[in-house]
Write a sequence for this structure.
């Protein structure tokens, strides 16, 4: 075994290494090969594309709702359909778009940014993706068979209980959550392991890119938050509905507020799960396009950490109207306001970076500016909602709808689009058109504000949420009509984005490895990256390896390229520790997910199907972990 | 009504260019008018009619002013950050190491640090304002001359009961609450089925009505008027049509109203109205509704003893007129699809007396 | 590949059509008593004629079974029949029905009333509600598709859902 050596870049001999790496990292051909692939770029891209499809689906549901609400006493959608629309819209956006999209971007980008070849658990990665897909299929099977959930995306009992929600709608919803939650837990686990163990040598904790910190923090949050939604939806609600438990049945000793507490213990961190990776995107975009090392790196990292911790202490602000004791509610007012300190710190640091950098006004920066405008506005209405007397007036009105769309779309979607424009060259090898990108931005920005700003006014004037129609005497029609117009402008923006992305694939300017002169490691390899990411794994001698003197850049040599080998380093200072052989392509994650899904689908109808799921998962896992002789690729 | 757009249509044969401009102006006016004037009606947080909602309104005004100022400042800083022209001396370090000079870093540290400090202070101030307002509102209750009204949420109507130790003084009604001006009223709430939420924005914030729990809030109207409220927690198919009216009367009028409500139902005087009452008692109405003074004692639907004294029907969905009532009885599922009222098959000669009878129940 | 997915989606759309059907505005048809459909004896002089088949339009529809459950409580069937176990009236969870257990017979019983205390509901409640009640009775007898089985009522105690009985000081 050749020892590991740090070698200056200019001394590397490429050809034989390249051949060996291509051979050991390529996927098998055909359908079976497609189903057994587990390189992180492929799985990450699948997550991104699938989540984008669900963004479109959720958007269509939103448009249908907006058409119904554009006119008073409208009859475009009846109450049942409308209730299904808003529930499916919320569920799709929260569970099938936002979290998987952030996961997918992380799965794609994190190994590139820390200088390794794949995530720590490639088969778990694939399994997580397939579970996500099967969960999405379950929900949309329901949507197409009149079994879409219709009780609101948080499904409060007793409305979602067996007596007031007949049929299988709630059961489909609750079991879908099982799938998406398992998927999120898989990705969280492997991201943590990858970031902790597989960083480039020399990439100590204080040299990790801020986006990688975001994903580390977000993954830990997932581990603590996701089980709560499983308890609320599956253990409590689903069992109440199917096997006669009474967790949340108020007439037999249960408590509907128990459900609310457990759900929101997940629900509040959930929005931060979506938001914190977006903060990482903003940091990456700001530092790259203002061509300056980020101001206040420790402050940013600590602020995100603060966000993560405090996010677990806010959940009761969703329950202020339930007449909980005032002292308790005041505590949550305090914590809900204090979290603004963490967000505010980050905003100030970014403004400071922009101020002292040399900003290139490209599309990603436009989206960051849009983020600042929209997210800050949303955060400030959030401060209003943190106050109990104010919340008691505007809770469950369109004011809240406006607030959370401002923070979610402004705080997560705009940075996401910025990230798309920023990393598209890396993912496809071509740059997206700048002019069309700016049109894209303005359509989204104007459309968004036109849609959601009037909702603040509507909420203050008494329009409650989740109503399928309203009488014309209330005077809500003009603002609603305006919001619908805005929604169509957002649609236009979305179409422009898709056209830009598709067209730039063929006709975009060639990007090369580093179109933006970035500082982090993902820009040190080809665009799109080969299956093995880097010909030689880089070492990191500073926070921005690509901004250091090229003479001082080092890479790692000595790994066995005839198999999927990566370097494991220590936690604090990333000193090389040992070599790790990652598994090759395997059909078993897909099969395990398939067998489990069959069982879990059946359990919606019959409890005994859980045994099928367990048996299926057992068979799949046996195949998964069956020891294989380590063979050299022939 | 002569609007800008009407005039535009009339002029279109002669002035097509002006038409377009007038249409744009009319549309803008529609939205501006819609955002400002049309709301000067009911169910608005910004139109407080009692001490509780006035406290909230004041707190809202402070929050709006301070937070808008912060928003403008942050945007201005961002805009300034983008337009700042760097002096040449800063460029050189950035070109090579992408880190500006030490002085710049120190200046930024101070600025960002003071920004964070200011944020903390402002947030503390807002927190204190919020908590003191909450305390002030809760102290407005607990008054000696308060009145207790029990509100029980049902799918999709409100059961209202005026609590009294003297059983002969208990008033039971539905969907409409009369209160005397200037007197604090405690809304004691719960639910018979799913979680609802009692909300009359002009009087106070909302309180959820949760089955198996009793929630409390105090409302008070300081001026006479009609205040619209709406259920504010998604409760199923007809959540959109679960509204209520709180009507504040001067104290003597309130007493008159209450005295009338305590009476049993008006006995039908003529044969036509008696026929109507017979229809009511013969069909499924009696299984759900109650009319004091008759044998109808259903518990699961609104009490109809003084139905005609209410201004709306179907929980604020329609004005209470004979035509609307007839339409509601004949076809409730078109007006409120999914609601629990049975669709009966009444003959025309049965419907008319029934409607007349119900509208006689003052 | 995409065609297969499309076909699969269309096939999926055919499943569960009945279970999730919700007719929110059924026509309040005049109560019919179906001739010959509900016989109480299988014997007929001169040999049996082919009987008209009358089926419950709400068989297998979860929403209507749930509505039947609500009406069973609201129309006070629980007063005599409890939650199927009977009391003053006979149990409704059984194999041997006094007047026949087919949907047409149950419909007949509810509409016409029966000796010894079963009231005549015909002419008072609309026909579609009778069918909802029949669907509910079938469901507590485990004769509905398993995935539409009547959702358990959150409370089994008669009348205890009426919160007025629980609020301290409530009288009426």
């Amino acid at each position: 075994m050749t020892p590991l050596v740090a070698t200056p870049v200019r001394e590397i001999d490429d050809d034989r290494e390249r051949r060996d790496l291509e051979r050991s990292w390529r996927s098998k051909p055909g359908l079976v090969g497609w189903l057994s692939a587990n390189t992180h770029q492929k799985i990450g891209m699948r997550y991104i594309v699938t989540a984008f499809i669900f963004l479109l689906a959720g958007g269509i549901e939103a448009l249908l709702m907006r058409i119904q609400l554009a006119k008073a006493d409208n009859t475009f959608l009846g109450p049942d359909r409308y209730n299904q629309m808003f529930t499916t819209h919320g569920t799709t956006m929260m569970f099938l778009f936002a979290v998987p999209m952030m996961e997918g971007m992380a799965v794609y980008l994190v190994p590139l940014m820390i200088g390794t070849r794949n995530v720590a658990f490639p088969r778990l990665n694939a399994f997580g993706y397939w579970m996500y897909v099967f969960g999405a299929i379950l929900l949309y099977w329901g949507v197409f068979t009149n079994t879409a959930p219709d009780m609101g995306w948080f499904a409060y009992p007793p409305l979602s209980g067996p007596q007031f929600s007949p049929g299988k709608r709630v059961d489909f919803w609750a079991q879908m959550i099982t799938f998406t939650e398992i998927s999120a837990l898989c990705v969280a686990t492997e991201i943590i392991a990858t970031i902790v163990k597989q960083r480039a040598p020399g990439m100590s904790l204080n040299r990790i890119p801020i986006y990688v910190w975001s994903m580390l923090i977000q993954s830990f949050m997932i581990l603590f938050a996701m089980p709560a939604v499983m308890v609320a939806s599956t253990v409590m609600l689903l069992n109440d509905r199917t096997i006669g438990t009474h967790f949340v049945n108020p007439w037999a000793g249960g408590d509907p507020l128990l459900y609310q507490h457990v759900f929101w213990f997940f629900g509040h961190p959930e929005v931060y799960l979506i938001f914190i990776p977006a903060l990482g995107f903003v940091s990456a975009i700001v530092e790259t396009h203002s061509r300056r090392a980020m101001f206040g790196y420790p402050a940013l990292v600590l602020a995100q950490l603060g966000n993560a911790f405090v996010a677990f202490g806010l959940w009761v602000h969703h329950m202020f109207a339930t007449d909980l004791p005032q002292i308790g509610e005041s505590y949550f007012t305090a914590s809900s306001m204090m979290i603004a300190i963490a967000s505010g710190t980050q905003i100030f640091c970014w403004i400071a970076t922009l101020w002292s950098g040399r900003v290139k006004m490209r599309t990603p920066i436009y989206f960051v500016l849009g983020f600042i405008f929209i997210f800050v506005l949303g955060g400030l209405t959030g401060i209003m909602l943190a106050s109990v007397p104010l919340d008691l007036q505007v809770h469950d009105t369109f004011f809240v709808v406006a607030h959370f769309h401002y923070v979610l779309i402004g705080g997560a979607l705009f940075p996401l689009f910025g990230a798309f424009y920023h990393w598209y060259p890396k993912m496809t090898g071509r740059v997206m058109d700048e002019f069309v990108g700016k049109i894209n931005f303005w359509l989204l920005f104007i459309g968004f504000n036109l849609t959601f700003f009037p909702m603040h006014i509507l909420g203050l004037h008494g329009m409650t949420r989740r109503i399928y129609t309203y009488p014309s005497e209330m005077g809500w029609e003009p603002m609603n009509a305006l919001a619908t117009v805005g929604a169509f402008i957002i649609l236009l923006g979305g179409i422009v984005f898709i056209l830009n992305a598709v067209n730039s694939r063929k006709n975009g300017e060639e990007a090369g490895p580093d179109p933006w002169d970035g500082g982090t490691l993902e820009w040190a390899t080809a665009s799109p990256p080969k299956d093995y990411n880097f010909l030689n794994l880089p070492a990191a001698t500073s926070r921005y390896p690509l901004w250091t003197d090229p003479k001082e850049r080092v890479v790692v040599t000595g790994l066995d390229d005839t198999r999927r080998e990566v370097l494991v380093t220590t936690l604090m200072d990333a000193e090389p520790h040992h070599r790790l052989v990652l598994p090759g392509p395997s059909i078993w994650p897909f099969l395990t997910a398939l067998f489990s899904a069959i069982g879990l689908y059946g359990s919606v109808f019959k409890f005994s199907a859980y045994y099928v799921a367990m048996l299926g998962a057992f068979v799949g896992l046996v195949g998964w972990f069956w020891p294989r002789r380590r063979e050299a690729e022939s | 009504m002569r609007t800008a757009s009407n005039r535009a249509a009339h002029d279109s044969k002669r002035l097509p260019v002006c038409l377009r401009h007038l249409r744009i102006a009319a549309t803008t006016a529609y939205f501006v008018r819609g955002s400002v004037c049309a709301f000067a009606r009911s169910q608005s947080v910004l139109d407080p009619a009692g001490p509780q909602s006035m406290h909230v309104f004041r707190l809202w005004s402070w929050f709006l002013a301070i937070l808008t100022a912060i928003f403008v400042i942050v945007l201005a800083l961002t805009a300034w950050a983008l337009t700042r022209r760097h002096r040449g001396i800063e460029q050189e370090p950035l070109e090579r190491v992408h880190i500006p000079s030490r002085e710049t870093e120190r200046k930024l540290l101070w600025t960002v640090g003071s920004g964070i400090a200011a944020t903390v202070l402002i947030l503390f101030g807002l927190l204190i304002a919020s908590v003191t307002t909450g305390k002030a509102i809760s102290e407005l209750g607990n008054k000696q001359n308060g009145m207790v009204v029990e509100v029980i949420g049902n799918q999709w109507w409100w059961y209202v009961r005026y609590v009294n130790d003297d059983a002969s003084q208990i008033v039971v009604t539905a969907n409409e609450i009369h209160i005397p001006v200037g007197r604090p009223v405690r809304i004691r709430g719960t639910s018979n089925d799913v979680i609802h939420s009692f909300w009359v924005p002009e009087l106070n914030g909302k309180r959820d009505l949760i089955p198996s729990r009793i929630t409390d809030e105090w409302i008070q109207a300081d001026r006479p008027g009609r205040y619209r409220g709406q259920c504010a927690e998604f409760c199923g198919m007809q959540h959109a049509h679960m509204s209520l009216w709180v009507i504040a009367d001067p104290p003597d009028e309130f007493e008159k109203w209450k005295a009338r409500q305590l009476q049993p139902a008006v006995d039908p005087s003529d044969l036509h109205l008696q026929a109507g009452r017979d229809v009511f008692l013969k069909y499924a109405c009696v299984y759900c509704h109650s009319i004091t003074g008759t044998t109808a004692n259903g518990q699961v639907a609104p009490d109809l003893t003084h139905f005609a004294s209410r201004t709306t029907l179907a929980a604020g969905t329609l004005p209470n007129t004979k035509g609307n009532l007839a339409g509601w009885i004949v076809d409730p599922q078109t007006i409120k699809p999914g609601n629990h009222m049975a669709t009966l098959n009444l003959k025309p000669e049965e419907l008319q007396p029934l409607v007349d009878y119900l509208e006689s129940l003052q | 590949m995409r065609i297969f997915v499309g076909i699969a989606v269309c096939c999926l759309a055919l499943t569960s059509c009945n279970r999730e059907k919700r007719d929110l505005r059924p026509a309040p048809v005049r109560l019919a008593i179906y001739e010959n459909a509900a016989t109480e004896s299988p014997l007929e002089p001169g040999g049996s004629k082919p009987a008209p088949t009358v089926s419950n339009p709400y068989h297998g529809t979860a929403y209507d079974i749930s509505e039947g459950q609500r009406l069973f409580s609201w129309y006070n069937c629980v007063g005599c029949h409890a939650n199927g176990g009977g009391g003053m009236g006979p149990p409704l969870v059984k194999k041997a029905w006094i007047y026949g257990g087919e949907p047409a017979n149950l419909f007949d019983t509810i509409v016409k009333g029966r000796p010894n205390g079963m009231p005549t509901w015909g002419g008072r409640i609309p026909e579609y509600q009778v069918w909802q009640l029949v669907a509910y009775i079938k469901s507590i007898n485990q004769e509905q598709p398993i995935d539409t089985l009547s959702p358990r009522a959150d409370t089994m105690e008669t009348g205890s859902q009426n919160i007025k009985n629980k609020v301290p000081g409530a009288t009426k």
About this structure: Confidence is low (pLDDT under 50) at residues 1-15, 33-40 of chain B. The first strand of chain B starts at residue 147 and ends at 154. Chain B touches chain C at residues 150, 152, 159, 161, 163, 167, 170, 172, 190-193, 211-212, 214, 237, 282-284, 287-288, 299-300, 331, 333-334, 337-338, 340, 342-345 (CB under 8 Å).
